Structure formats: C-alpha cells, structure tokens
Amino acid sequence: MIVHLNGLSTRGFSCDAYPLGVHWEGYVFDRSSTHYIGMIREHSGIIPDRALRLSSGEVDGVAPSASSPALRAGWFTNVMPQTLITDVVQYHLDVVVFAGEEKALLLDNLRRTLVPDLRKEIVFVKRVSLRSADDVQAAEAYSGVADYLLFESLDDAGVSCWSSMDPSWLSAYTGTLPYLIGGSIQDADALLQAQGRLSGCVGVTLHL
C-alpha cells in the first residue's frame, strides 16, 4: 500500500513521525496553497532562482540521499508545462500529481519531454474530483498516460474531504489503472479502512 503524505514543507510535519511510514513525500507547487514550496528568488536576470531545501533533504542542485526510501512527489494545479519541468528537475521529483484540469495529451507530452533526457523515470498521477458516480468515467481518458489515478471528493471550500465521498461511486470505475483515494490527515483511519475494501485501490493520499 502507498501512503502519500501531501503538504510537507521545510518547516513542517516530519515523515519520520508518521507511524504507517510514508512512501511518497508530497510537496505542493500550487501558489494558492498555504503549503506552497516555491523557490528562493535571486532577483537577477543572470542567476536563476534556486530550489528551497525540502524536509526530506538538501536540494539546491544536490540529489536526495539514496538512503531515503520515500519518493518525492510534487502537487501541481494547471501550471505551465515549462514551469512544471523546471520544478521536476530542480527538486528532483519522482512523482508528479496533476490536480487540475490537465488533459491526457499534456501528460503524454510531458513524459516524452522528461524521460529519459531529464529524468530516468517519472510517475504520473492524475487526480479526478468526484461529485457523483458519473465523474468516475472521466478517468478513462488517462489510461496509457498516467500511472495512477487519485480519486477525491471536495467539500464546499474546495478541500479534499473523505466524508464528502460516497465509496459506492468507485464501483463505477472499470478501468485498469490502479488508484489512490484521498482526504485530510484527520480522515486517515476511515481512508485506510476503505482502501482495504476497494478493489484496485493501492493507497491513500493524506493532506496536511
């Protein structure tokens, strides 16, 4: 089972403190989020901006230690392709979560750009926001371009909330891609129980 802990920062939650272990350390690259990572601005037309140090280790052009088993995951929402490519390279990301309205063609083009020239390999996850069982069918478009799906339901404030999800909606999914289910870290117990009952569900995303 994959445990994806999303919303880490240079000052925040330590993965070592999470009892289940963390397989994907999640960092948010959405500027509208309070968990946004960003870069150190050099305010120079010559010197490029530098990546901040992440809680999983040094960045600043240095790859993470091979002794750390967790993969680095970046959370992106409708960003420009060149911005995403820059962040993937500078932060040495292993996993990219597409949380916006990105089309399958974009994912396909980005993978061709990144692999193998910029990254040896990369894992793509497409989030699908569910309001009803009908929304599950939208996931079919990402077969062959994503490695995993992430099914979440959002509350009125646009925050992932497992209590807003009807698990029976997921029975409408007939695709072949493995998927995760998501919610806040306060939903962890309910998510883990649901994960064990859902065929095709291989993990959970927990938002800090």
Q: How would you describe the overall organization of this protein?
A:
With 208 residues, the protein is an alpha/beta fold. The protein is built from three helices and ten strands, in the order βββββαβαβββαβ. The strands form two sheets. An eight-stranded parallel barrel has the order 1-2-5-6-7-8-9-10. Strands 3-4 form a two-stranded antiparallel sheet. β9, α3 and β10 form a beta-alpha-beta unit. The longest helix is centred in the middle third of the chain and has 11 residues.
Could you write a compact summary of the structure shown?
By secondary structure, this protein is α/β, with parallel strands linked by helices.
H/E element order: EEEEEHEHEEEHE
Query: How many distinct beta strands?
Result: 10
Main β-sheet, spatial strand arrangement: 1-2-5-6-7-8-9-10
**Structural class by secondary-structure content:** alpha/beta
Low-confidence stretches: 40-44, 59-63
Helix-strand blueprint:
Blueprint: E1 2-8, E2 24-28, E3 39-40, E4 50-51, E5 71-76, H1 81-90, E6 95-98, H2 104-114, E7 123-129, E8 148-152, E9 179-184, H3 188-197, E10 201-207
Parallel strand pairs: 1-2, 1-10, 2-5, 5-6, 6-7, 7-8, 8-9, 9-10
Antiparallel strand pairs: 3-4
List the defining traits of the structure above:
two-stranded antiparallel sheet
